[in-house]
Specification:
By secondary structure, the chain is of the alpha+beta class. The chain folds into 2 domains: 137 residues, Beta-Lactamase, CATH 3.30.450.20; 52 residues, Arc Repressor Mutant, subunit A. β3 and β4 form a beta hairpin. The longest helix is centred in the last third of the chain and has 23 residues.
Amino acid sequence: MFTQSPQMNNRTCIAERSPTQRFSSSSATAEREPQPRSFEILRAVLESLEDGILILTPQGQIVHANVRAQQMCQALHRGTKERRPLPDSIWRVCRALVEGREILPEHPMMIESEVLTAGATKIRAQARWLAPEEGDRPYVLVTLEDLQASMQKVAIADVEKYGLTPREAEVWMLRRADCSYKEIAAQLYITLNTVKKHMKNIQAKRQQFEWVEEA
């Protein structure tokens, strides 16, 4: 069922009314600009996103993949014998969306799943339909989120929000990355009781912050 889409230039994408071209035509500003220029702007937006973005046909052909999505797909391919551009773990999510539409064609649907790379990086894959204009061919939009990287960003923000010490920050970032107390102790070369003490202090600071916010 899966076939690789041939490489398309901007002219081909516009002729086939790609999702990015359709979105750009909805704004008055974009209508006054040449379509190739608006396509380049939207492609630049996709490339600037931290999440991986895939645009697929219902048959699994890749219409567009930003650099981050390509990196994640390569990570999912690593250690496997897969030769197709789209990893099987991602295609299974998309296939569930396609099959769901056949059963409930009028029901809005989003399929989500978590997949692991060979390096144990957890990726959240979400597949949903792009809303095509009536009569247009449908596309599947897939977003790929590195959950560990996302948790690290949240932890870094928490460090400043709660006023954590450097050591508490290290403990909290590992905890946010789903490390157990034993794993934190091993990585930081500290005792289990020290980890528990730091976590107790962190929770106290978080609770104090919430009290101040509610006051």
